[in-house]
Amino acid sequence: MNSLILFKKIIPTISDKFEIIKTGTAFKGLKANEKYRKIRIGIPEQLNFRLKANIKYPHLNIDDAGITTRIKILENSNLEYEGFKGSESAELPLIQVKGYNVSLTINEY
């Protein structure tokens, strides 16, 4: 697993899991458009970030208390979500996930 990720775009594979245990503080973002995938990412606790998700049949495992939610619409098993940790800024690293039956877990370390 990678211990420093600046930006990662997930390339489709046969595996149903994708995991980055620790991104490091220089993390710039993650972009994924997936089907039937479990995505797990470790973010340093002091790192602020933005999160955008548009998923049919979603499963989000994130710290709702630590993230300011701008948009959260769950309708007919479709989720549209936008939020951020820290002060909102376009310069924050962006975690963007789209897809079908996607599980996203963000762990802070």
Description:
By secondary structure, this protein is mainly β. It has one domain. Helix content is 0%, strand content 59%. It has no helices and eight strands. The chain has strands at residues 7-9, 17-20, 29-43, 49-56, 59-61, 68-75, 78-85, 94-108. Strands 1, 2, 3, 4, 5, 6, 7 and 8 form an eight-stranded mixed beta sheet that branches. Strand 6 and strand 7 (78-85) form a beta hairpin.
Average pLDDT: 88
Structural class: mainly beta
Total of helices: 0
Q: Count structural domains.
A: 1
Number of extended strands: 8
State the separation between the terminal residues, measured CA to CA: 15 Å
Instruction: Give the fraction of residues assigned to helices.
Output: under 10%
Fraction of residues in β-strands:
over 45%
Identify the overall geometry: globular
Instruction: Report the biggest beta sheet as strand number plus sense, adding barrel if it closes.
Output: 8 strands, mixed
- The residue ranges in which pLDDT falls below 50 over 5 or more consecutive positions are 1-7
Order of helices and strands: EEEEEEEE
> What radius of gyration results from the CA coordinates?
13 Å
Topology readout:
Elements: E1 7-9, E2 17-20, E3 29-43, E4 49-56, E5 59-61, E6 68-75, E7 78-85, E8 94-108
Parallel strand pairs: 1-3, 2-3, 3-8, 4-8, 5-8
Antiparallel strand pairs: 4-7, 6-7
